[in-house]
User: What shape does this take?
Amino acid sequence: MIDADKHNFGKTVFRAGVHIFKPRSLFCEYQIYAEESTFRQKLNRLLPGQFEILPFLRFQNFSHIATTSHRPMEFLELKTIDRRLSDYEVSQIGGVLALMNILGVGDLHKTNILFGLKNDKLVFAPIDLEVFCQLFTISRMSLFGTSLSRLRSGGIDHFLTYLEKHPDSNFSAKILWGYKNTLSELYKHRERFETAFFEAYPKHEIPTRVVLKNTREYFNLISKGTFHECFREEIIQLERGDIPYFFRFIDGTSDIYFWESETRYQKVTSFSWLHSHKILSLTQGIKCEEMLADASVLTSAFDPQIGDQQEITSYKDIVIIHKKLCKLVHFDHGTIQVNRYLGGQVSG
Assistant: This one.
């Protein structure tokens, strides 16, 4: 059973046999997981071995264009992790997170990530990639819950569950080491990656989802049966029983759209402020040092596992000093102070 929301005239994700069907474009998933993808091939050549934990998946009838028709991709069954991960495997998780940041991926809550073993080989794969080419750093890509009480609704829950069975006080240091080194290499080659990512696909045809409100907010509105605080295009979708769904194209234009029928989309006109929502090229993101500083919030998220029992944790050139009210993360280029969760948010 797949837990999926209804969008665009009641359509939802479903599984049939060895495939999972999603009612949208699978452009980003294809680029990362298809063995024939030029982008994936270039990743593997420039950074050999770094992305071994990303599986290859098969796609049928692939199309990059915006659609509400169901598109099939291979469904991957994984086994729960029943062994301690190697230091290298943990660092590879950080490398995948760096790749997701470069691609501007968001919405990485726990049901959108595969984390487990396939033939005793680790798989860590953000698998629902409809939100991309947007301004998302580690602390803003839904890895963490929307509040401290909902921390485990985020993708971070996979790691917390693993650490409950296989404690590792240096876990976050290993992830940060992999993140730092992979991010540096991705930045070094980012123009080549961008060329490969969009090669043969016109940007004005490639959609990326724009999330206006989180799904829980919409469910609360539906349960109350009142939509007076919503915009016109939200109300149209809520009244037909859908969780509102908006998207734009990644050619840099500001227009945002919604599906007015199953085959026709329409420009949103009732909330113009959203049109300032940033779409990034892969070469015009945040500075590498800023992304690395933001990624250090991972050390705070793992507090439930390590607490204050160990004053210093480390892996290679990453050293983390755990203090009562903050953590000091030492990289080769300087030190970053990370505060603990304050009011359900991570600050640094």
